[in-house]
Give the backbone structure.
Amino acid sequence: MQIYLPIAEVSVNAFLLLGLGGFVGILSGMFGVGGGFLMTPLLFFIGIPPAVAVATEANQIVASSFSGVLAHLKRKTVDLRMGTVLLIGGLVGAALGVQIFSILREQGQVDLLVKLCYVVFLGIIGGLMFFESLKAIRRAKGPHKVPTRKKHGLVHALPLKMKFRTSGLYISVIPPVLVGVFVGILAAIMGVGGGFIMVPAMIYLLGMPTKVVVGTSLFQIIFVTGFTTLMHATTNYTVDMALAVLLLVGGVIGAQVGTRIGAKMPAEQLRILLSIMVLAVCAKLALDLLIMPSELYSLGSGGH
Amino acid sequence: MRAVLLMLALLATLPAKAEQVVADMSLRDVEITANFDGSDILIYGAIKGAREEEGLAPLEVVIAITGPTGPITVRRKEKRFGIWVNTESVKVARAPSFYAVASSGALQETLTYTEDLRYQISIPRAIYAVGAPAEITDPENFTEALIRIRKGQNLYQQLDHTVALQQQSLFSTTIDLPANLVEGVYPTRIFITREGVVVGKLTTFIDVRKVGLERWIYDLAHNRPLVYGILALAIAISAGWLASAFFRVLRF
């Protein structure tokens, strides 16, 4: 069944969109990731204009992270104070990101920027994850070694210290705000929640305990992607409601199914699978940039 | 030489009454609904008062549908730092978003060069390209690319030998409108030619509009973007909440 998307102004198969939503939903449920970093490139591949894909995906992430944060709030694994600090940075970053996006869109460079960001970040994250899980599998076989964590670093030396009771931290607010800004920019440009950047940053940079990391990042993501959606809707008019609804129907169902599958599979193998998939998407996008395209010309809307 | 021929042709047609065209089409309002996947339009009509003299060349029919026209930017990629990047761009002042030209013969033979210039009938003539930046030495490549890309998307169609013309008076053709149409008024011009010269002309209109939900979403997004954004968020949040509530119920 073909469906005409009112904002994207293309006609796409509705079942393909539901299926994509479900597929990415299952993955996000299995691996505990937002899935934006997989969904947005997949939307490029099926011919949704990148500007619309990015803005609409931000809207869809609101739905999936809201569903997730409810569960974490109930388990009290959200550091609201840290979340708020990250959020302040995030909103600044998102506002910046949407402006950058808008300027580059007029110059016809937005596709390049979005794709470059994807190649770089998917490459780094996929690569790290791949080697990390390989090591973990080897470690599980060999003798166990407890990793030592650095107790004092930059986060303690900077001014403007604040107590984060839920995380049991007393650190400067500057690093979390900067992490927030960075993730906010990425959210606006790449149409992702940024959890895949924020979670490692929270663990390794801020030294937050693992159990509050996912809930706190989800909390921040809801507001940043929500804000991004509003900004894209008002400055670029690129949020496609019909597309978002189709994706999130598939997505929320898929996520619940994925959670169940994930619980039954060994974690390390799961992570290797995910990293391979991330690297595959990265490679496809990189090849598109490196290989001479069959059509060197492209059409931009309007006369800007 | 061509001009002289043209003058002769004009002189020959002057004294006689011009051929008149009457035409209609199967669909005047094309409605883009949520499941719109293109539409076929049957255009038919008759030529009245055709001169019937010995040795006169036969009449030909050319039908052109033009979509909403506006400026467009054509960009070219070049290899920079190892990757393919948009570099030069040419702004085409006026290009139709959709253009189909159907003719009873080969378009080149049913229309002379001057008549094409005057009425802007063939695809390259329907595009108005001026003002390429001085540093671009080959603006024609950009217009060619525009035509090539739009042809690939079925947005520009040159349909030779597709107008059926019976007994020099009844004509009909079917034009396939693709799914990725832009809304607006589509002027439809019907030309009757003899020896490549236009001897009769009729313009009518097709109205392409988004209707129903499509209309509503599009208008809201452009006229009240803040309300639209908030609504999109509300839908997302309630869907997220519903999903987690639903599966919690299901689990117990």
